[in-house]
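This part of the workshop introduces the protein records we will be handling. To make this concrete, we reproduce a full record directly below.
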Amino acid sequence: MAVRATIAGISSPTDLQEALVAAQYLADDALATAAYLALALGKPLLLEGAPGVGKTEAAKALGGVLGRNVIRLQCFEGIDSASALYEWNYPRQMLAIRQAEEGFVNLYGEDFLLERPLLAALRNPTGTLLLIDEIDRADHEFEAFLLEFLSDFSISIPETGTVRATQAPVVVLTSNRTRDLHEALRRRCVYHWIDYPDAALEARIVMARASSVAQATADAVVASVGMLRAEPLAKPPGVAETVEWAEAATLLNAQGTRWPEAFRRSIGVALKDHDDLTYISERLSAILPGEAA
C-alpha cells in the first residue's frame, strides 16, 4: 500500500485540522486524524452519524482544503448502476440517425455519453473528491456494486472499452446508519463516527457561521438545542438548525421582538416536524433561551 505523507501541503492531522478551520469547518482531533489517514493511505473515508451532524459538510470542506471539485452521488432507494456510472443519450442517438441520410454515424461517441458521478471521478481523479452521500439509503445490491468499484476504480463500457483511474480518487462515503453496511465495505474504508459536537464546540460553530449572533445568544441556543435533542423527537435539530435558529432569532430581536419570544416565533427553523412541535409545545417555555440571550 502506497502511503503519501504529504497531500496538498498537508503533512499531519494537525495541518488538516487547521486547514479545515480556515475553511470554516471546525473538526475535532479524531475527525482530522481519520481524514488525514484516509488521504495518506489512499483509502475511502466512511463517516457515520445521525442526520445533521455535519458529515456532508465535512466532505465538502475537505474538498475545498484539497482544492478539488466535489462530485456528489446522492444515494436513494432503488438507485442503480446506470444512475451512478453513465447512460447513453438515446433521444439524441435517434435524432442523429434520422439526420444522417447516408454514411456512418458513431452512436457511441462522447456527444452521446451522459456522464454520471462515478465515471466523472474516474476521468479526473486528481481534480475531484467523490462524495457518496447516504450510502445506507441504497440497497445491498448497489452496495455490492459500489464495493467492486472501490476495489479497482475502473468502469467497463461495452461499446467503448474500460475506463480506469490512473490514481485512486479521494472518496468520502456518508451514512445515517438507517441500516447496517456490509462488513466488506467497512473494511475497505477508514471509519469515523461523527456525533453532535459538545456545547463549547457547537457554540464556536455558531459564531463562525453566523457573524451577527452574539456569544451569549450562541451559548443559550446551544443549551436549548441540547435539551431538544434529549427529547424523543422524530427529527432532532442538527448543527445547521442550531446556526439557523440563532440567526433567525437574532434577526427578529433586531426588529423589535423581545427574548425569549424571538426564539418561540422562530422555532420552525429548529424543529421541522409537526408531531415534534406538538409534542414539545407544553414544555417549550422551559426549553427556550431566556433574557440572557
